[in-house]
Design a protein that fits this description.
Immunoglobulin-like, 40% helix, elongated
Length: 349
């Protein structure tokens, strides 16, 4: 069939195969792009401002490209050599005050316009007033995970940030206070806001007001070590009812099921409790994520894997199997201890 088609159209088989490859690659790229965070799908006031500024800048540079490309194409076609045997030198023009003035003044005006527009957008975001209804969250960047503290709600969680839905009629923005526990990190959820760095001993602040419910994916955008690429985060934008239910769940003490007491004993007698906290136990560590409501999260290892008992067992047994370079050590537990510990952790909702 391919042979007949290529014979009738005069197209070579290799060209046909190339077209098929490009078509498949295009479909694959479209599928990936559909699931990739993008500044061109804003869902918050800061990201909307960035989006509109991006379109404005793209329009200006696109216009410059069209003008320059058009003039270049005109010059190439209009003044092409028509007689290959004509070696005479064309007329030479030296200097033009009008042209020189134009290519000096126009770029300066473009730069000034872009500068003023960008500055207006930056100040509009940074100087936005903080309403009484705002939610305060402290974000702490660690190698290689995120800690989220809700000081007014008494909640501490990790890697998955829950915030309430906002609207123009009922604004409920979330103000984030950004800190670093070790090295430079960068908080970036493209559909909600621009990048903001977390710098040791230099707190930064940003805010978001998500306008649509759902899950928004982001990650650390600053190289912070070997596992920088897997320092992922998720922002869950909840309806008022969903957020109230989540807050109530997170404010509960950690579940202590007597049926998994053996696993709790492993947690409290091994090194786990030195790094992690579980309310209701002796674990008060802050070096690793708070595990009080571990199973309420969809992922583990800062988004590196789905939160299932199978993945949890792999993670505890040898973290490098899921996230090579993680600072969590392999605990060298026996199979029985692993089974008991995972059974206990799986009850922490």
């Amino acid at each position: 069939m391919i042979r007949d088609w290529t014979h009738k159209t005069g197209c070579s088989r290799s060209l046909f195969i190339l077209l098929l490859f490009l078509s498949a690659a295009g479909r694959a790229f479209a599928d990936v792009a559909q699931n990739t965070p993008s500044i061109f799908a804003p869902s918050s006031t800061p990201s909307n401002e960035i989006f509109h500024l991006s379109l404005f800048v793209l329009g200006i540079v696109g216009g410059i490209f069209v003008v320059v490309g058009g003039l270049l194409a005109y010059a190439v076609i209009r003044f092409r050599a028509r007689n290959q045997e004509d070696d005479t030198e064309p007329a030479q023009i030296y200097g033009s005050n009008q042209i020189e003035l134009a290519w000096t003044v126009v770029p300066v005006l473009i730069v000034v316009v872009l500068f003023l527009t960008t500055a207006r957008m930056i100040f509009a975001i940074q100087d936005a007033p903080k309403p009484q209804s705002a939610l305060d969250v402290t974000v702490v960047g660690h190698q290689f995970w995120w800690e989220f503290r809700y000081p007014k709600l008494g909640i501490v969680t990790a890697n998955e940030l829950h915030v309430p839905l906002s609207s123009t009629s009922d604004p409920k923005p979330t103000f984030l206070h950004l800190l670093s526990a070790d090295v430079d990190h960068s908080f970036w959820v493209p559909q909600l806001a621009g990048k903001t760095d977390l710098i040791p001993n230099h707190p930064n602040d940003m805010w978001i007001d998500p306008l649509h419910p759902g899950v928004y994916v982001g990650q650390c955008a600053q190289f912070c070590g070997i596992e920088h690429a897997k320092m992922l985060l998720r922002v869950y934008v909840d309806t008022p009812e969903q957020f109230a239910a989540w807050v109530k769940e997170q404010q509960q003490l950690g579940m202590q099921d007597p049926h998994v007491a053996a696993g709790r004993h492993v947690f409290e007698t091994e090194a786990c409790m030195n790094c992690h906290t579980i309310s209701g136990t002796d674990g008060r560590g802050t070096f690793g994520p708070d595990l009080t409501h571990l199973m309420s999260r969809d992922t583990i290892a800062a988004g590196a894997a789905p939160n299932t008992p199978q993945n949890l067992r792999v993670w505890v047994k040898n973290p490098d199997d899921l996230k090579q370079g993680s600072l969590m050590p392999a605990m060298q537990l026996s199979d029985q201890q692993l089974d008991d510990l995972v059974a206990y952790l799986s009850t922490l909702h």
